[in-house]
What does this fold into?
Amino acid sequence: MSKLTGKRAVITGGGTGIGLACASRLDVEGIETLLMGRDLERLEAAAGTLERARAIRCDVTDDASVEAAFKASGPIDILINNAGIAAACAFTKTSMDDWRQIQAVNVEGLVRCTQAVLGSMIRADYARIINIASIAGLRGGAYVAPYVASKHAVVGLTKSLSLEYAQTNLTVNAVCPGFVETQIVEDAIANIMAKTGRTRDQALAELAKENPQGRLIQPVEVAEAVAWLCSPHSGSVSGQAITISGGAI
Ligand code: NAP
It folds into this structure.
């Protein structure tokens, strides 16, 4: 039996990609996972592939939806703030609505979910918040300014909350992947193909070369770092932004 058996984790965006990989990895540890997102049917299908998972509808941009979802989840030990969106566009063509949409999910959604659990987490004898940021939270990137700004905010929030609650048993860390083989990257490939006329292989190569290892990261590799941060023995690791990027920073 794992030391984490019986713990309960909320994973926002838990029905797909990195979120689902985290849920699968935590399931192996005996952790009950509560998968949150907007697409309930997809979440339920994902939960059905795991032993201890439940789907809960939640739009992280909506106060009432988050309040209802965390009421339905009951007390939790681990929050994985993973829900996120990305878009690529020249900054001169970025409207304020485009800007707000990305911040609303990637930053404000994370703040909303974190505030929903913080009160109980800072009184608990074990608690973890893990924010799925990005290497875009550590460096700049052309044509993705709103996304880069949102992920820098996630890293900044992680460091600040880690210090603010350092005297409790809560740790707050960020995981910063490079390009991971998920729907977000599929969309990026389609965008490059549409805007530049490159083939799929050329577009994929363009993204893979950002990683010194020359490949896309697999979701399970991100999930492994998340599982380590959940370990009871990782209690002195807090305020960190851990890159999962084949050496890229
Ligand atoms: P993904 O499969 O598209 O996952 C995004 C998830 O976010 C979906 O499950 C989606 O679920 C959820 N989501 C989006 N808007 C939401 C909202 N308003 N409320 C609740 N959930 C919402 O892509 P992914 O790559 O696994 O992305 C997961 C996280 O990793 C994101 O934060 C992303 O920025 C980060 N990341 C990804 C990469 C990469 O290369 N793939 C690299 C670095 C960081 P619903 O549609 O059901 O709401």
Residues 96-121 form the longest helix (26 residues).
